[in-house]
Amino acid sequence: MSGLFSIPVYVLLFLTLYFEVFLIYTYFEHRHSFRLTSAPPRRPGAHPTVTIIVPAWNEEHTLAGTVNSLLSLDYPEDRLQIFIIDDGSTDKTYEVAKKFQEPPRVRVFSKPNGGKHTAMNLGISWATSELVGCLDADSFVAPNALREIVRYFDEKDVMAVTPSVQIHDPNNLLRRIQSTEYMIGEFTRKVFSRFNGLYVTPGPFSIYRKRVFDEIGGFVHGFGTEDMEMAMRMQANRMRIENAHTALVFTVAPKTFRALYKQRVRWVSGFLKNAFFNYRYMFFNKRYGNLGMLTMPFAFISIFIALFFYGQYVELLANSIYERYLQYSALGIHFHLGWPRFDWFSLDLEFRHLVVYVLFFSTVAFVLTGIYMTKRRLHLSRNIVYFLFLYGLIAPFWLIRSVYNLLAAKEAKWR
Amino acid sequence: MALNMDPSTAHSKKYFLVFLITLGLFGVIYLTSEFLYSQRISQVKNVEDTINQSILESEIQYRLLADASCDVNDSGSNPLLTDEINSLARRLDLMESQRGTLDPEVINLKKYYSLLQVRDFLYLRERERICQSKEPIIIYFYSNRGDCEECKKEGYVLTSLRETYNSLHIYAFDSDIGLSVIETLKSIYKLNGTVPAIVIDRKPYYGFRSADEVLSLLPELKASATSTAATSTKK
To answer: What is the C-alpha to C-alpha distance for residues A253 and A260, in angstroms, rounded to an integer?
Structure first.
C-alpha cells in the first residue's frame, strides 16, 4: 500500500475513523438514552389506538406465528387492531389468514398482487387509529414490544419509532453472521436516533403516527425499499424518527447465500437509488440536519470505502497466493516441520495498519454494546468471530452488484 | 427521554470537536506507530551489535590460538550466532515488506547486516586458507525491487538448503542497496548485473537454480562436518 494509493487510503481511513468517533462521542453524550429500563405502566385509557398491518405474499408458513405474536402483545385489546393483507398470494396464505379473522380486532383483506407498498396503503386507507405500524409476515414481536414503542410517542414531535430487529433462530453460519450484524445495527440505530439520523424505518414493526401518511402520502415502490423511501421522505419533511431499543422484534433471516445476496442487493441498491435519484438534495444540506450533513453522505460513501478496502484486501490475498505459487514452483510441495514461532516483528505496526486495528476493535465494541442492549448481558459467542472474519468476504458481492445497479439504472430520472 | 439538544439540527461545533478528536487519535496512532518502529529498530541494532561482537570474539580467539584452532571441530561459526543472524535476516525481511524497500532505516540496517556477512565471510575464508580446509559457501546476489520473481524463488531454494544442511554457509546480498562493499564483491566475481546470481568457488551462475542444481555444484557439502551456517538466506 504505497505510492499512488497512499493518499486515498489516508483520507478514507480518516473519514471512517471520524464517523466512528462521531458515533462513540454521541453514545457517551446520550448514555442515559441507552438504559434498559422498561416502559412504566400507563394509566387506563392512556394507550393510543394502534393498527398493525401485516402485508403477506406467499407467507403460509410464517404468517400464523407472526399473527400469534401480535395477539400475544401486552396491550389493551380494544386499543389494537390487526389488518392482515393478502397481496395476491398463490399459496394458502389467505386461508391461514382467514382463520384469524375476528372483527374488529383482526381483519383480513385480499387484493391482487401489487407489491408490499400497495398492501400497506390499503391497510392505511382503512385505519382509523392514532398510530399505524407494519409487521412483515416473517417476523415476530416480543410481548412488550408495542408498549416499549408507544412510550416514545409521548413526545409530540416523534412521528415514527423503529424497534430493535434481531434474527430469529440463527441456526446456520450465514444466519449467525447476520445475527452479529444486526447487533451492530442495534447500537448504530440507537445512536443515529440520538441525532435524528435514521434513514430507514424497517418493515418489521416500525410504527408511525397516522397523520404522517395524511401529510406526506402513503408508501411508494421506492426501488423495492419502500420502508427506506418512507423514512427518507419523512426526514425530507423534517419529521422526527425515534428508536425503541428495548422493543425486540425477531425476523427470519435468509438461509442461503443466494437469498441473502438477493435481499442485500435489493436493500443496498434501494438505498443508493433512493438517496441518489430522489433525495440527493439532502446531502450536505444543513437544512436536513445531521442526516443531511453526516449520516446519508457517509452511508453513501461508506459503500465505496468498503469496496476500496476490499480491493486492497483482494490484492494482498492475491499476492499471498502468488507467493505460495512461487514457493511451490521453486521447491515443489514443501512442508516446514516444527511449531510455528510467533515473532512480534511479523505483526504489521505500520500507521495505516494500526488505524485498521483501531477500527476493528471499535467494531467489536459496537457488537458487544449491541449484544448488551439486546440480551441485557454481555454474551460472547462464536457468531462474533464468524462475523468479524467472514462478513468482509461476502458483503462485497452485493455491494459490487448494487453499485453496478446504480450506475446502470435507467428507470429513474436524474435531478 | 428528551434530547439535550435539537436532534434535527446539524451541530457544527460537535463536528469540529469530533474532527479534533479524530485528528488527535490519528496523531496518537501515528506516534505509537513511530515509537514501536523505533523500538524495533533499536532491537535490530542491538542484535547486530551482538553479532558484530561475536564475530570479533571469534576472530580474536582464532588469532590467539593460531594454527591450533584448526584442530578444533569448529567450522568458524557459533551456532547461537547463526540463530541470531537467521532471526535478524527474517526480521529485516519483515520490516522491508512492511515499510517498503526505500525506507532509509531499513536500508541502513541492511547495510550493516551486509557488512557483518562480509566480515564473517572473510574470517571464514582466512580460516580455510590457514587450515587448508574447504567449507561449502554460496554467495548470493538478489534484488528486492519487485520485478525479480526468480530472486524470490531462489530465496526459497537457498532457505530450504540452509535448513537442511547445517554446514552450508550462505551470504546473501541485496545488489540494489548501494553499498560499496557489495559493488566490490560484484566486481571481484565479475558479475554482469543479472540477478539472481550465485557464486560458488568464485564462479558465477545466473538465473534460477533448483535445489538439485545447486547441490550438484557443491559436492563437498554432504562430506562436510555437521556445523552451522554463519548466515542466513535472504529473498
So the answer is: 8
User: What domains, with CATH codes, occur in chain B?
Assistant: 18-223 (3.40.30.10)
Residues of A in contact with B4 (CB under 8 A): 29-30
pLDDT tens for A31-50 read: 999 988 888 888 777 899 99
Q: Looking at the partner chain, which of B7, B29, B33 has a beta carbon nearest the beta carbon of A196?
A: B7
Chain B contacts in chain A segment 275-334 (CB below 8 A): 286, 289-290, 292-294, 323, 326-327, 329-331, 334
Return the sign of the alpha-carbon dihedral for residues B85, B90, B96, B98.
negative
Task: Give pTM, 2 decimals.
Answer: 0.82
Average pLDDT over residues B11-27: 93
* pLDDT over threshold 60, residue A4: no
Of B22, B99, B152, the CB nearest to A350: B99
Instruction: Please state the domain extents for chain A.
Output: 1-35+155-332+343-410
Q: Whole-number mean pLDDT of chain B?
A: 81
Q: What is the mean pLDDT of residues A64-83?
A: 95
Q: Please check the confidence at residue B192 and state whether its pLDDT lies above 80.
A: yes
**Confidence band, pLDDT 50/70/90 cuts, at residue A415:** very low
What residues of chain A lie within 8 A of the CB of B99, using their CB? 350
Give one DSSP letter per residue of A201-256, joined into a string: --TTT-EEEHHHHHHH-----GGG-HHHHHHHHHHHTT-EEEEEEEEEEEEPPP-S
Q: Would you say residue B71 has pLDDT above 70?
A: no
ipTM: 0.85
Picking from A2, A13, A21, A235 by the largest number of B CB atoms within 10 A of its own CB, the best residue to mutate is A21
| Residues B106, B73 contacting (CB under 8 angstroms) | no
Strand A131-134: give its sheet, edge to edge.
Answer: A106-111, A80-87, A50-56, A131-134, A207-209, A158-167, A240-251, A139-141
- In angstroms, what separates the C-alpha of A58 from chain B's closest C-alpha? 39
Q: Does B9 touch chain A (CB under 8 A)?
A: yes
- Is the Cβ of A117 closer than 8 Å to some Cβ of chain B? no
Chain A contact present for B21, CB below 8 A: yes
Nearest to B10 among A290, A323, A353 (CB): A290
Q: What is the mean pLDDT of residues B165-190?
A: 90
Q: Which amino acid is at B81?
A: L
pLDDT band at B100 (very low <50, low <70, confident <90, very high): confident
